[in-house]
Amino acid sequence: MAEISKDCRVPIKMSWDDLEALCRTEGFQCKELGITKANVNEYEVEFLCDYKKTKEEEFYLVKWRGFPESVNSWEPKWHLKCPKLMKQFHVDLDHELRRQKRRAIPKRLDKEISSLLVQKAKHRKRLKTWEAQLNLTCNHPGGIFVINDVDLEGPPKNFTYINFYKAAPGIDFIETAVGCKCKNCLEEPVNGCCPGASLHRVAYNEQGQVRIKPGEPIYECNSQCLCGTDCLNRVVQKGIQFDLAIFKTDNGRGWGVRTLQHIRKNTFVMEYVGEIITTDEAEKRGHIYDREGATYLFDLDYVEDVYTVDAAHQGNVSHFVNHSCNPNLQVYNVFIDNLDERLPRIALFSTRGIRVGEELTFDYKMQIDPIDTESSKMDSSFTLAGVSTSPKKRIRVECRCGSDTCRKYLF
After folding, report:
1. Quick one: pLDDT at residue 22?
2. Which residues contact 355 (CB under 8 A, 6 or more apart)?
3. By the number of CB atoms within 10 A of the CB, which of 125, 137, 214, 288 ranks highest?
4. How many CB atoms lie within 10 A of CB 366?
5. Residues 19, 113: Cα–Cα separation, whole Å
């Protein structure tokens, strides 16, 4: 929601689109919307609603940005300078004609087709607005794109994008008070670097790829360390580095995530972020999510099963990552500024090279053989949706990952 500026002198709350429409139709100026005296009457094509053709010309029914649909107007093709919108209009039109098994474009579209094209245009606009909000909220270099060419489902309701864990009331993070004094953290772990102080070796090589086995913890340098932001032992804390697309799957798996850039093997991709709750609270929420067919609870059982990450309503891109029985992402426990072993950060690293356009997945019931229980303190499994080594009842969910090694059921 937005509020008209003092220049408009209309103290009423409304959406940005309705606000812009009001300003332009009433001739108001608004600094927040960039509407000035010079451009208040300028017309810009928002989307195309309809099409008709005569012997002489082609016409499009235009929805003008910032103006109500009541002022939509038919414009000749030569008068419009919006090639991308025209191309998208005809892509949608061709798709609908093929669905109806019609070959030629009619001289005048029927009401059903034109109505559907308007719905698609408005749907695409909602997704673009959501995409812009996500990129304004996220604090990582990698961009987020939103794509839905399958249906008219829009942004998820009751979901807030967050960049870090959000602790529920009564749960506190213990911030570290010490840091290393190394000059080269990859070469000096035995002299007091963060991994060495925790009796572990540095997890990364010089290219930033993880070089330890799944099950071993990662200790990164923290805010108290003397090394700079270019330290090679700072990887997860730098956030998502790749452009990712949240897309609607076409096989009933809901939303998914694909990479728009090549990802090398053993590379950090993203964190699993959400609200930190107790396992008792997770048990209560789990029964609700089961009835909804959702799987967003991730038990933090690095040393003991005390806390759970709930990404159902607060999370980041990982909220949309689907399960696979043959995944390309692997889970690691990471400690940076918080050294409470009950509250590790959950990082997802690539298990192999991932090509551009490939969907990102991880196993919701990922089994990891303990490396050394004395040194790693690793439980026998990572679990999502509240499933762990403890006997918790869960509704059996059918798996649709499609891999050759599919277990047929998620849980």
Report:
1. 62
2. 262
3. 214
4. 16
5. 29
Report how far residue 361's alpha carbon sits from residue 329's, in angstroms, rounded to the nearest whole number.
6
Per-10-residue mean pLDDT for the chain, 411 residues long? 46 56 65 60 84 93 89 93 94 91 88 94 94 95 95 93 94 88 81 85 94 93 92 96 96 93 98 95 88 83 90 96 92 93 95 97 68 37 38 62 80 62
Q: Which residues in the chain are classed under CATH 2.40.50.40? A: 48-137
What does the alpha-carbon distance between residue 227 and residue 221 come to, in Å, rounded to a whole number?
8
The conformation of residue 156, written as its DSSP 8-state character, comes to P
Question: In the 8-state DSSP scheme, what is residue 128?
Answer: H
In eight-state DSSP terms, residue 73 is E
Determine the pLDDT at residue 305: 85
Nearest CA to 363 out of 352, 348, 343, 353 is that of: 348
The secondary structure element, H or E, covering residue 314 is strand 314-315
Residues of each domain in the chain carrying CATH 2.170.270.10 = 141-384
List 138's β-bridge partners, or say none. none
CATH annotation of 48-137 = 2.40.50.40
H or E, element range at 273: none
At residue 64, what is the residue type? W
pTM over 0.70: yes
Could you give phi then psi for residue 319, rounded to 5 degrees?
Answer: -55, -30
